[in-house]
Amino acid sequence: MMGHVRAWAMPSAVLSVVILGAVALAREPLQQSVNGTIWVANRGAHTIRAFDANSGAVVHTVSMAPSSQPGDLAFAKGKIYVAEEFGAPPAIAIVDAGTGLILKRINLSAGARPHHVHASAGGNLIAVGLFGTDLVAVVNTHTDELLGIWDSNPDTTNGRVHAAVFAQDDTLYLAVDVTGQVVAMNPFAGTVLWSMSVPAVHELAVTHDGKTIYATRRGANRLAIINVPEQTFHDVLTIGLPDTLRLTPNEKMLTVGLRTSPAQLAVVDTETFAAHLVDLSAPGETTTIGGHQWTSRNGRYTFAAFEGGSNPGVAVIDHEAGHQVIDVLAYPGRPHGVDRALPPE
After folding, report:
1. Per the structure, how many domains does the chain have?
2. Mean of the per-residue pLDDT values for the chain?
3. Closest by alpha carbon to 330, among 13, 11, 26?
4. What distance in Å separates the CA atoms of residue 117 and residue 127, rounded to the nearest whole number?
């Protein structure tokens, strides 16, 4: 079952600011504070930007490699790891989250296409799917050196690793596009533990106990659940072009980024699989499309990127207010990947 929420049913004070198209944000701080910074990768501007999570103020804008189209990023150990997918060469750039300075680049081979970026539960590892190949890059965040570039299937070369996500025990799960495989891997040695067929698999989210994986089957317009011990899956929801996933810590809510137009996010109840669709852009903006999202640990807020239309940026959704968009953090270009960085210790 799906319900629909008008994303722009905002308090009048907020609405007036957005209609005026003001870049400087005038809203009140979030009712329940989200600390740290929200980092966003922009494929059109070739930059990444940090917004103060509570006030929405711009903290840093960092220029990445020319024409690199940074599409995703992840926070770990005080740093932001950025996929410079189309850089020359493609690279994983490492940025100091406090200063915005680029610390290092891990250069990759031509055509590697570093794509989605995920941190392990403790932040000790970063995994980057190399979408131009069937490989995954794993980085040790203490040394910022590659642990390895591991092969999802040594017997073939036609897979495309779209995403690589960690379980709590550091098992790495790969969503291998094209071939429709989910691969379980030891990230320290690159050993393939097992693999199973999940046609059209695109993104993954693992529960705390490691027994269940939520999987988007984008090309099939389905959200599925994978039973890890039995290595089986079944579909639980039909929805248009589901992509990125964020599971709240209590695992009662799943946010699903959709790649339909206009830009929308699905908020899914993991007990009933009822879904509420939230419009991210203003009414009448029919050419917008959603990107990635980050959902706060208390499940109160989601920051969801979208591009296109007259005011691309990051929609701030208050789930306790009926999944309403209460603000948009303007970011011209093609904002896409989103993650939260904790304040410096």
Report:
1. 2
2. 92
3. 26
4. 6
